[in-house]
Design brief:
- The complex is a heterodimer of chains A (about 200) and B (about 80).
- Helices cover about 35% and strands about 15% of the residues of chain A.
- Chain A is α/β, with parallel strands linked by helices.
- Chain A has a single domain, classed as Rossmann fold (3-Layer(aba) Sandwich).
- Chain B is mostly beta strands.
- Classes of the chains: A alpha/beta (about 200), B mainly beta (about 80).
- Chains A and B meet through helix 2 and helix 5 of A and strand 4 of B.
């Protein structure tokens, strides 16, 4: 574990994180990681920016219609022009996912659908053992933000969320609660990169 | 054989003791039981789920062994 802040910053600057999904979670995770000093990010998303995204995702009105990866990269480079960004504007499948992840030190699952989440966790744990994965489940609705937690579900699997609040149940997505979950994910990634661990 | 079974989130309501909660219960299962057998016996809903045995991802057709710890987690949508 790095002994002081300079060593910690150096460790983060030498690390890379792959983010699968650049929506409410992923776009905000990317910005938080970059601001924290992780300068190599792989951004994976097939989708384009829509007006309905603007209530919680890190996009702007003048980016409507653009691929989320490209729009997010543009914003991230305004924060850190030296950021090393790899953009993958593709829909992930069990067959192509691992090839997109490169040599990421940590993977962040930030997609919307439950079935895709399950696929990603399975593919990463099977094909990339030892690479930590931070997944999210349960961030919709208006329950307390305090119900969103980070826990270690398996050796290299960290879970963020309240585990139960399902968008499909008609619960709305509020920026405040989505960003709590995104902050948990980003912080879990940072802590793991620096050698800390969850209980 | 004895297998510890933990069910997360809404799946916990399917524990045979009816008490809910995510803590593991000890199941006494016949040799050769697969994860899919347990899922069928517990009548778990046909929803996305992630299955772990001893903290590692496992396929549902895997056979369980004495002393295994089975955990099943159902992700929910939103991202």
């Amino acid at each position: 574990m790095p002994a002081n802040e300079a060593d910690q910053r150096a460790r983060l600057a030498a690390s890379s994180v792959a983010i699968i999904g650049c929506g409410g979670l992923g776009s905000n995770v990317a910005a938080m990681l970059l601001r924290s000093g992780v300068r190599a990010l792989t951004l994976i998303d097939f989708d384009r920016v829509e007006e309905s995204n603007l209530n919680r995702q890190l996009f702007f009105r003048d980016q409507l219609g653009r691929p989320k990866t490209e729009a997010l990269a543009e914003t991230l480079l305004r924060i850190d022009p030296g950021a090393r960004l790899t953009l993958v504007t593709e829909c992930v499948t069990a067959d192509n996912l691992v090839g997109f992840l490169g040599k990421a030190d940590v993977i962040v699952e930030a997609v919307d659908g439950a079935d895709t989440k399950a696929m990603i966790v399975g593919a990463c744990m099977d094909s990339l053992p030892g690479v930590p994965l931070v997944t999210a489940s349960g961030l919709a609705g208006l329950d307390s933000a305090n119900a969103i937690v980070t826990e270690r579900l398996a050796d290299d699997l960290y879970l963020v969320g309240d585990l139960t609040s399902d968008v499909r149940a008609g619960l709305p997505l509020f920026a405040s609660r989505v960003m709590v979950a995104a902050a948990h994910q980003a912080h879990a990634a940072i802590r793991r990169l620096l050698g800390f661990d969850e209980a | 054989m004895k297998v510890d079974v933990a069910l997360f989130a809404y799946l916990a309501d399917h524990q045979p003791d009816g008490l809910g909660g995510r803590h593991a219960r000890a199941f006494d299962l016949p040799e050769g039981t697969t994860i899919a057998d347990v899922i069928t016996d517990l009548a778990l809903p046909d929803q996305p789920r992630i299955v772990f045995v001893n903290n590692r991802h496992a396929a549902e057709d895997s056979t369980l062994h004495d002393g295994d710890r089975l955990a099943i987690f159902p992700p929910v949508a939103g991202g």
